[in-house]
Amino acid sequence: MNNFSIDLGLRPTTFDLWHVCLAGAVLILCLLLIVTLIWAILAGRRNKEHSVVTSPPEIKIVEKIVEVEKIVQTPAPEPIILKEASPDAACLLLSLLQREARFIDFIKEDMSAYSDTDIGAAARIVHQGCRQVINEHFTINAISQDVEGNRVTLNQGFDANAFRLTGNIVGEPPFTGTLVHKGWRVDDLHLPKLTEAHNPRIIAAAEVEL
User: Fold this and answer.
1) Does residue 196 sit in the same domain as residue 122?
2) 149 & 137 share domain
3) Which domain holds residue 102?
4) Contact indicator for 87, 200 with CB cutoff of 8 Å
5) Helix, strand or coil, per DSSP, at residue 88
6) Selection from 155, 143, 127 nearest residue 179 by Cα
7) Neighbours of 106 (CB within 10 A)
8) Prediction pTM value
9) Main-chain dihedrals φ then ψ at residue 53, nearest 5 degrees
10) What is the pLDDT of residues 69-116, one digit of tens each?
């Protein structure tokens, strides 16, 4: 009986068709293995993406700001305090004008019955008496020292009580215009004092000749 022994260390010396088919099979198996691995990786990644719980989209709340118009109530203007003129002083002044210039007689007289010459003569007497009363009891000076008819300028902050604007008033000071009247201001006055028994409303007592 013949004994057969196989030498595993031997290497083939020829490359026949069988070896070509075996190499091709190995190559195909490797390609299939690579494709399978790639498909498994992609499938696992896809499943992972689906398994992740996505957070709900952020809901942006648009706040609608409603601007409420604030009604600003302007403070009520301060009440105008009216200073009552002393009736006694007014009556006393009329009394002085009547005594020195016959002022009330002149005003109350009906001038239609007199000529211009007569009225002019009477007016001269009244003028002299009134001038005497004013100069004796009042110190009066002109407000503006400019000559009437000249151009004057009123700057910002001018005394609106001392200067009265007329004509087309537009914009803000300074104002430039023509001085129509220089104005008057009482700087001092001294009226006679009255006794308690005196009735100031009696401007001129009625005269009775006996």
Assistant:
1) yes
2) no
3) 84-141+187-201
4) yes
5) helix
6) 143
7) 19
8) 0.56
9) -80, 110
10) 445 556 677 787 877 778 888 999 999 999 999 999 999 999 998 999
3-state secondary structure of 8: coil
Q: Is 31 contained in some domain? A: no
Query: Number of H helices and number of E strands within the chain?
Result: 4, 4
Number of domains in the chain: 2
| Segment 27-48 mean pLDDT | 74
Cβ neighbourhood burial of 126 (10 Å; 0-12, 13-18, 19+): middle
Beta strands 184-189; 138-142: pairing state? antiparallel
Nearest of 164, 113, 106 to residue 130 by alpha carbon: 106
Of 191, 183, 174, nearest to 94 by C-alpha is 191
Burial 153-176 (b: 16+ CB within 10 A, else e): ebeeeeeeeeeeeeeeeeeeeebe
The answer on 134 and 109 residing in a single domain is: yes
Dist CA 205 CA 96 (whole Å): 13
Decide: 132 and 101 in contact? Cβ < 8 Å: yes
Does residue 110 sit within a domain?
yes
